[in-house]
Amino acid sequence: MLIFELSRRGRRNPTQAPAAVPEVSAIPESLRRSRPPLLPEVSELDAVRHYTALSQKNFSIDTHFYPLGSCTMKYNPRACDALAMLPQFLARHPAAPDDTGQGFLACMYELQETLKEVTGMAAVSLAPMAGAQGEFSGVAMIRAYHDSRGDAARTEMLVPDAAHGTNPASAVMCGYTAREIPTDRHGNVDLAALGAAVGSRTAGLMLTNPSTLGVFESAILDIEKIVHGAGGLLYYDGANLNAILGKVKPGDMGFDVIHLNLHKTFSTPHGGGGPGAGPVGVNAKLAPFLPLPLVALEKGGYRLLGERAAPLSIGRLSAHIGNAGVLLRAYVYVRLLGAQGMRRVGEFATLNANYLMAGLKKAGFEVAFPERRASHEFIVTLKRLKEETGVAAMDVAKRLLDKGFHAPTTYFPLLVAECLLIEPTETESKQTLDAFVAAMKEILAEARADPELVKKAPHTTPVRRLDDVRAARELDLVWNPAQGE
Amino acid sequence: MLIFELSRRGRRNPTQAPAAVPEVSAIPESLRRSRPPLLPEVSELDAVRHYTALSQKNFSIDTHFYPLGSCTMKYNPRACDALAMLPQFLARHPAAPDDTGQGFLACMYELQETLKEVTGMAAVSLAPMAGAQGEFSGVAMIRAYHDSRGDAARTEMLVPDAAHGTNPASAVMCGYTAREIPTDRHGNVDLAALGAAVGSRTAGLMLTNPSTLGVFESAILDIEKIVHGAGGLLYYDGANLNAILGKVKPGDMGFDVIHLNLHKTFSTPHGGGGPGAGPVGVNAKLAPFLPLPLVALEKGGYRLLGERAAPLSIGRLSAHIGNAGVLLRAYVYVRLLGAQGMRRVGEFATLNANYLMAGLKKAGFEVAFPERRASHEFIVTLKRLKEETGVAAMDVAKRLLDKGFHAPTTYFPLLVAECLLIEPTETESKQTLDAFVAAMKEILAEARADPELVKKAPHTTPVRRLDDVRAARELDLVWNPAQGE
Amino acid sequence: MPFIPHTEEDIKAMLEAIGVASIENLFDEIPAALRGRGLPDTPPPLSEMEAARLMRERAEADGHYLNFIGAGAYEHHIPAAVWRIAARGEFHSAYTPYQAEASQGTLQVLYEYQTMMASLTEMDVANASLYDGASALAEAVLMAARAHKSAKRVLLPATVHPAYRKVVQTIVRNQGIELVGVPYAPDTGHVAPEALAPFAGQDFAALVVPQPNFFGVLEPVDELADWARANRMFTIAVVNPLALAILKPPGEWGNSGADIAVGDGQPLGIPLASGGPYFGFMACRKELVRQMPGRIVGRTVDVDGKPGYTLTLQAREQHIRRSKATSNICTNQGLMVTAATIYMALLGPQGLAQVARTCHANVLMLLGNLTAIEGVERAFSGPIFHEAVLRLKTPVAPVLRALQAQGILGGLNLAHDCPELGHALLVCATETKNEEDLMLYAGHLARIIGRRFRPAPCAIKPKP
Amino acid sequence: MPFIPHTEEDIKAMLEAIGVASIENLFDEIPAALRGRGLPDTPPPLSEMEAARLMRERAEADGHYLNFIGAGAYEHHIPAAVWRIAARGEFHSAYTPYQAEASQGTLQVLYEYQTMMASLTEMDVANASLYDGASALAEAVLMAARAHKSAKRVLLPATVHPAYRKVVQTIVRNQGIELVGVPYAPDTGHVAPEALAPFAGQDFAALVVPQPNFFGVLEPVDELADWARANRMFTIAVVNPLALAILKPPGEWGNSGADIAVGDGQPLGIPLASGGPYFGFMACRKELVRQMPGRIVGRTVDVDGKPGYTLTLQAREQHIRRSKATSNICTNQGLMVTAATIYMALLGPQGLAQVARTCHANVLMLLGNLTAIEGVERAFSGPIFHEAVLRLKTPVAPVLRALQAQGILGGLNLAHDCPELGHALLVCATETKNEEDLMLYAGHLARIIGRRFRPAPCAIKPKP
Ligand SMILES: Cc1ncc(COP(=O)(O)O)c(C=O)c1O
Ligand SMILES: Cc1ncc(COP(=O)(O)O)c(C=O)c1O
């Protein structure tokens, strides 16, 4: 049932609207709307009941183990949320003078400082509103840097084939050609291929470390030499920082630019797909290019810096300051954790991943890089299972839903066949991991005994397997009163 | 799974506790606890996930139509809740001086005044914490009144047999004998029996009007004369005020004392069984006996009045002021409704009940008093269905759960066989009522075609029909680590 | 129409289906004289926006104070998760779980709550809550009298919270139960076992024992419980549930424990909120369970043998037993209990003990600071938990007013409740106070009463 | 350990299962030189209680003002139900709905949202949201350029919010797209169709049309859209979605409507919150849907034929198309969109129109009051929605500072963004202001600039 189907003409919530006022005579007729939009006319009870019911159709961290690789679905502390939503924080207008927001700006400034410390970078901007926008900013800074030196020949951004799709897409957004670098059989960047690819056209290399294959690029210092040696810069995609938070700093690995996904490592709620926040950090030589605004502490007061203070900046990314509320949540999170707590994040995320990998191996699953340590995540490949039983990674994923677990990431990274990318995070207990292994083991047995059961999964969700092909072919993106249910 | 079964020794939420402090040397060993209590040791995520999952196992107004007769399960506006929980209201200590709570006390005072207006009584006390405590206070005031006049012979409280069980129980709490008055075949108090029962031993009559049979005592003015004529007082159980809110005032009917259930008529959330609030109203001659504290407006300031100001009061009912937060919610509710809105409550609650009654009649159900108007609720009797098919009222109730509706009140009032007491409330739409009739009709058909299906219901709830007899015989009220699941 | 979804069209169709011409007709059984006199003094409706503005202005007018009042309601940190979960619509907007199969959420929470309370008190069983601590004590007194059968008198010491004593009086008076006071020892501030001697061997249904008592002082509970049992009385414990994380639980008092334990659950995650809603808890010995008032949840199985939860022992309650019920109480404080259950789950046994220990350490530090001021001394020598009585040399009221002007609520003036104590002030410090808060209070107090303030040398070492 | 549930026993068992001696060993593939340099400058952990105190103090320091600033972010009443429901854990703590069967809640909300936005704008389709209004405009510019193929230039009038223009510049610059300004008419404050004449017949991919524009003025959208079409450009509308409750929707501009409509969704139930998170919306013609960036939800059926919702057209997105994707945007603002959907459902078409009309009436009343002060006048004659530019006789900054001292944020000083306007001030009044607020502002302003204030004779009649 859609909210529109609950609607009845003339139903009102007068409590929610100001008293009726006369028509707007000061607006010329030709600029006015002639018929009302198709918004539902429902009671407050209808709306509350409808959206409450919809919420119950979701899996979420608050209801399920959610080992979605590369997404770091860990517990979002309620305190972060409650404190970021204090009435004065919510009420403040973005264009209100800085002196009306010293409390808020103090949090922003301290978050900037903490992120510098955690990443080992010289300067940080909180402006980007998501990881991909962080990537864009980072690459734009790389370009601004080369441009500032008159080095216009650098037109290629190197991107490992294991990289998240946003990496090459962001490179292209900045006018670069994305050039793929292959992965070797241990899951590392192929150093020879990298060596062959770098040159005077190289603007830089975008690297996720630990990579999306769930392993740490142990030759990172060699990579650094190759890229820097060719005059390129090194970009760090921080989406996987959870693996090494407080343990290893990207700055120490030689990265020039990084972005972080606060909605991953810093546990801000993912909200069904957003909002996020993707602060960028840089070393000193890129600092002048950081996106705006920046938060400064001057003469005891906090101030937002704009174009005048940072004339070389790549510019602004949003109409205001970025996703301020997300940043506030992340700030509270780092204060609750402190240095030791952040260090433990990396340690226990890694412990959980390696334990889960060991458990699944023991249960008969094939992992993609059995000779490697897992970082905070790891890959199971079901290639053999598929060959033997016809049960694909997606089938196993769907069957997990029936067992009360959200599925891992499927078919990413693209280079491992029939893969599941599994990230348990540090906030899950051994008991939960054990239960997950037990469920996976059951599915393995089911796949052998009754493959159809798995291939037709899920069986217990509000809808069963959906027809994606039809969704894309017979586009139905907007409800139409004529079509009914 | 119980929270205790998730527990692991040594699991902690350090964020929620102050830093460890030394043992409490200033407390003698003999007064200290020697082993820790059996509280669960779980992570914050465990707790959030566990209680979120439990919440999803409830039916509630926010998720289901909940026509529980006599309980007035209507929409609880979110605004009432949000505004009663403003930080300053939540933080105020009950013993803080009155001048630190003028905002809060203004709300209390105005609520008192509005309730006077709505009920037509001379004075109101907000002190009682639930309907039953309101009844207790009301009867105690009746007793205090008779006592104050030296009229010690009045030892009987008259209570119609249709009354809610709290009525006779409250009378007994005040030291009275409860004497039952029968109901006539139209659902009214049997006037002849009443006339025969009253006398010099009569302390009063407790009446619910509209009664729990879902009809209005139309001879109320005769009843008034009979009881008052015998020197008794008239008590109004206001649990059913929703039927006549803003339309008819108990004071105008001649009642001397009333209580209201704010958690019904004034839509404060029922919270899985409480808290409630049961303010009492009285006419002028009983005003000196009102329970404490009272809220007064004096010299422009609001003040709580205690024993010194009201020496004849029956006394205090709670350690502080009563369920203040519930009262605040009710205050916001009356402000959102205003006079006209309250009037509509009675009108539309009555419209919905009569419409639903008409619909169920048409669908083949037998109503208990077909010749009468429904008030805000009405009774369906399934006596004949039971005889024909073996399907009892409880079976129909359980089967409704499968159809996504909370069941009506069953087997109350006790005098109608196989009864369902159905109260839709004014906040439900015609569409919902129609859907309920359709479900009831389906069940009727099922009862005839496949009675076992109904008798074994529910089938879709988290548990199926529970063994109540075992629950009472093999008492298991407290989990014991030895017993496991 | 606020919260009424009917469209004109709906109304028309509904009236037609009923067969009446207007809504007014549906009220035709009501004598015309009674109908529709209107509500002239009721203000017009506000929109939610207007109501929000009004309430925000009122809330802001009430301001925010640094609070050192306890006296039965205590300021504690409440984890953000507690109310975020308890306020979920499915808990919030449900009624009493009469249809067990549709209410397993509420029912299991109550069962877990009963378990937690039984364990905190070390009693056999607990009910699903009562209105508040004071009325729970009244119910315990009635329960003891019912169970005892012969006696109609109960010993109610003067160290029980005065408001509790008043509430008990209000509620039990009409059933002919007599409450008999027991004095406290003026030096220690608790009931001296000697004070009970006059009552030995008499017919009393119960002895009430508060722990900590109204003065914050710890009672000699072992002796008192043993004395009660020796004299064929029930022991009714009135306890602060948070304190039980570190104090001996009623079930272990003396040689055989208390018989009934009650108290107010407010310290377990319930906001102060000007006094309510809180919740009363009650736990007791197995043998007394059928005398216990209030709702009780039991574990059982469904037709498939799957465990489930349901209201049980309803035969004691008014909707079945009517005038013969154990009590008229029908409602419990379900929502508050839900919050308290989540609170206890989040804190765990260690967390709760740390909160209790921090309260204790803070009040000792506060007392150290305050009694370092000349003219400020402790009224009693008995051990305390997180609250204590101070005696000043001058009337308390003007001192409190001066503190209030500095944003500090300095405690409860006992002039009204305990005039015999002279210029006495009941102060409390919970874990919410930090060292600066405690110093701030002392600094202001010293200035106000015009005396010198020497901070205690060691932070948490109490003055003896 | 904060938010880490492992007990000592767990850790031991886990290390054993892995076959390592310590957690440190799990990092042995990382060069030793890189490991564990510590975080010396990071403060120690706070308990939730301490963090709450810190944040409350900071929030209180920020205070509370009577706000008349708009400029792209608008103060509106947000019904209490909106965030109570949107903040439910199941919405809040879910990720992108990659597993459709386990995410029907989020997916259906998004489908309903798309429908609402398409309808508000009267466009064919809408996506599931973008980051914010400014970046949505940048994406629209890129999208127009992709769809147009030949042209690499876009007309971006000076009446578009300056921050939006900067963001577009940041984002499209590196792809070689040129932004060409169009001036506004100094009398009306909107783009005069004549100003476009020089660009007629040239190769531009699009004309951007804001409604209302940055000055609060309404653009002659019909003429502008028709001109763009006549000159083979797309029309990109940048609109305030709340205003669309009463203003002509982009889909109906001119003879054939705009091609793409974007804007910031903040007015639809999203708190101001110092600037975010908000959300950007985007709607377009059917023909352009495959060029649209961002997530899109489609309705389909499951294997039983039951309707359900799923992410669709993913072949445009980076995780499939990588460097050939329509955009790098991956995330949407799902939570904000959930709130906005609930907001729109609660308000309905009439409620939204009443909010919009009240804003309009309030700003007219405010302007009446303010321009009744000598030395205060409107800068532009064009019709407005809920915001307008005032011109003073003296610099704006000191006036705003003086108002701020009275608790009033009097508007946005345009000295920086539009120096050509002289002493100009952009003021806004939404439905949250009542008559007294509007009078209060005027009263203080009159005093501050030392002029007489004559309230407008009729409350909502505007000065011409
Ligand atoms: C490795 C990696 N990089 C980048 C991103 C993009 O981040 P966002 O979704 O915040 O734009 C993601 C997000 O899934 C990611 O996993
Ligand atoms: C008719 C009637 N009277 C009294 C009561 C008792 O009210 P409470 O549950 O608030 O004690 C009820 C509650 O169900 C009732 O329906």
Explain this structure to me?
- The complex is a heterotetramer, with 2 copies of chain A (485 residues) and 2 copies of chain C (464 residues).
- With 485 residues, chain A is α/β, with parallel strands linked by helices.
- Chain A folds into 3 domains: 3-55, no CATH class; 79-337, Aspartate Aminotransferase, domain 2 (3-Layer(aba) Sandwich); 345-469, Alpha-Beta Complex (Aspartate Aminotransferase, domain 1), CATH 3.90.1150.10.
- Chain A has helices at 3-6, 44-55, 78-84, 87-91, 102-119, 131-148, 166-173, 191-197, 220-229, 250-253, 262-265, 324-362, 383-389, 393-402, 430-449, 451-455, 468-473, and strands at 123-125, 156-160, 177-181, 202-208, 233-238, 257-260, 280-282, 294-298, 301-305, 366-367, 378-381, 409-410, 419-422.
- In chain A, the strands form 3 sheets. Chain A has a 7-stranded mixed β-sheet with strand order 1-7-6-5-4-2-3, with helices on both faces. In chain A, strands 10-11-13-12 form a 4-stranded antiparallel β-sheet, covered by helices on one side. A two-stranded antiparallel ribbon of chain A has the order 8-9.
- In chain A, strand 8 (294-298) and strand 9 (301-305) form a beta hairpin.
- In chain A, helix 6 packs across helix 7 (166-173) and helix 12 (324-362) packs across helix 15.
- The longest helix of chain A is centred in the C-terminal third of the chain and has 39 residues, at 324-362.
- By secondary structure, chain C is an alpha/beta fold.
- Chain C folds into 2 domains: 52-79 and 348-448, Aspartate Aminotransferase, domain 1 (Alpha-Beta Complex); 82-342, Aspartate Aminotransferase, domain 2.
- In chain C, 35% of the residues lie in helices and 13% in strands.
- Chain C contains 13 helices and 15 strands.
- In chain C, the strands form 4 sheets. Chain C has a 7-stranded mixed β-sheet with strand order 2-8-7-6-5-3-4, sandwiched between helices. A 4-stranded antiparallel β-sheet of chain C has the order 11-12-15-14, with helices on one face. A two-stranded parallel sheet of chain C has the order 1-13.
- In chain C, a hairpin with a 5-residue loop joins strand 9 (297-301) and strand 10.
- The N and C termini of chain C lie far apart (66 Å).
- The model of chain C is unreliable at 458-464 (pLDDT under 50).
- Classes of the chains: A alpha/beta (485), C alpha/beta (464).
- The interface between A and C is medium-sized, with 25 and 20 residues.
- The site of one pyridoxal-5'-phosphate has 14 residues of chain A, from helix 6.
- One pyridoxal-5'-phosphate (PLP) binds next to helix 6 of chain A.
